[in-house]
Design brief:
Oligomer: single chain
Number of strands: 0
Helix content: 55-70%
Shape: elongated
Distance between the termini: 30 Å
InterPro entries: DHS-like_NAD/FAD-binding_dom, Sirtuin
GO molecular function: NAD+ binding
Strand content: under 5%
Pfam family, one: SIR2
């Protein structure tokens, strides 16, 4: 299907729908923003991360450091605290309607 560049903005929704309908498959990706919309903290840079985890800010520990398996060796009490808190957040947050839309579109063959 050939779409003229100047026709795309005017017919964007119908063109996108046609491309999706004619596709053999679709890959959907979502960044952390979809979780933020549901109420999870925003970790954009250390400042966003440290706002959510002031104890780690005080210790000068950033996300990549605490999320590393080595953090369980270096500072196990902080690593377990971080992951325990994350688990509690994931369990307490109700996903917004965008997750329902994505779930509705997903089809996973039983042979996989």
């Amino acid at each position: 299907m050939d779409i003229a560049p100047n026709a795309w903005p005017r017919n964007a929704a119908s063109n996108a729908a046609k491309l999706i309908a004619e596709a053999d498959g679709i890959i959907l990706t979502a960044g952390a923003g979809i979780g933020v919309d549901s109420g999870l903290p925003d970790f954009r840079g250390n400042e966003g991360f440290w706002k959510a985890y002031p104890a780690l800010a005080k210790a000068g520990i950033g996300f990549t450091s605490i999320a590393s398996p080595r953090s369980f060796q270096r500072t196990p009490h902080l690593a377990w605290g971080f992951y325990s808190h994350r688990l509690a957040l994931y369990r307490s947050i109700e996903p917004h309607k965008g997750f329902d839309v994505l779930r509705h579109w997903v089809l996973i063959p039983a042979s996989i």
